[in-house]
Specification:
Layout lengths: L2 H8 L2 H17 L8 H14 L3 H20 L29 H6 L8 H15 L5 H6 L5 E2 L4 E4 L8 E4 L2 H19 L18 H11 L11 H14 L4 H8 L4 H8 L3 H11 L4
Antiparallel strand pairs: 1-2, 2-3
Helix pairs in contact: 1-2, 2-4, 6-8, 10-13, 11-12
Protein name: Tyrosine-type recombinase/integrase
GO biological process, one term: DNA recombination
Keywords: DNA recombination, DNA-binding
């Protein structure tokens, strides 16, 4: 079995292509790789530390090296796995990792999910649309009240916190329809006679805390995109990053995201807009 075929069988096309590229670079720069032992690999990684200052790059290369030896063991070329116990202690960079993000088209798929419980279907549409279109945090979602939905203006008001600025963002036309139906019908059913000003309610008529929203997203979309976890945080990161790839100015993106400081927004742009767009297209092409 060839390396390429092995990777295609075990990973998504984009992940397989990424690993293949990294492994080919590893084999080209280190011809002794097929017979290397643990100490050899640690020496090789020591050289890489002087070449790459970004700890994420080191983690990515080491992951690829481990996959290479997984393959070697799989085909019987080796009985031992010299990279299995390699653990890097480097603190990962706070840079947003572009290869983990989702394109706008991939985010839209999250809104097309079939629901088992009809009473929660519309609530979940509202919840997910506020993630996908406005990129809210779980804390902001859980804090939304009914009065924050400004249907007459076609917008949603997000309260400021110690770490984020208040802002008012426009709603999509489809969101207006979902929110109107949710507020007039479904939310009243979820309340079950109790009282609450919060927008998003659970089964018992209580507001959904941020932890519950996070668990809901991970549980519902688990395995949807193999090799990439769908989480509320990653959806928000994708929304913000996609604004840069669409050519928006950093000031506009900062205001949209509610960041207090431009440096927080800058992490999503990385070196430049072209790098962002190229990375997303390289790792996650729309097929």
């Amino acid at each position: 079995m060839t390396l390429d075929k092995y990777l295609q069988q075990h990973y998504t096309p984009s992940t397989a292509a990424s690993y293949l590229r990294e492994i080919n670079q590893f084999l080209s720069s280190y011809p002794e790789a097929p017979g290397a032992v643990y100490s050899d690999l640690m020496s090789y990684i020591g050289v890489l530390r002087h070449r790459y200052r970004n700890s994420y790059t080191l983690h990515r290369i080491v992951s690829s090296i481990k996959v290479y030896y997984d393959y070697q063991c799989h085909i019987g070329a080796r009985l031992d796995h010299p990279a299995r116990n390699i653990r890097l202690r480097d603190k990962r960079s706070r840079d947003i990792q572009l290869q983990d993000l989702f394109s706008a088209a991939e985010l839209e798929v999250l809104l097309d999910r079939e629901e088992r419980y009809s009473v929660l279907a519309l609530r979940n549409k509202v919840l997910m649309s506020l993630l996908v279109y406005q990129g809210l945090t779980v804390g902001e979602l859980s804090a939304l009240s009914v009065s924050d939905i400004l249907l007459d203006k076609g917008s949603v008001y997000i309260k400021g916190t110690a770490v984020s600025n208040r802002r008012e963002l426009p709603l999509k036309p489809v969101q207006m329809d979902w929110l109107s139906s949710y507020l007039l019908e479904v939310r009243l059913q979820l309340l079950k006679g109790s009282e609450s000003d919060l927008l998003l309610l659970g089964h018992r008529g209580k507001g959904m805390p941020g932890t519950e929203i996070s668990k809901h997203v991970k549980r519902v979309y688990k395995g949807l995109y193999r090799g990439r976890e769908v989480s509320a945080q990653r959806i928000r990161q994708s929304v913000i990053a996609n604004l840069f790839s669409q050519g928006h100015d950093i000031g506009v993106v900062q205001q949209f995201a509610g960041h207090k400081y431009p440096s927080s927004t800058e992490r999503y742009r990385q070196d430049d807009v072209y790098r962002l767009q190229s990375a997303i297209e390289l790792y996650h092409p729309i097929k």
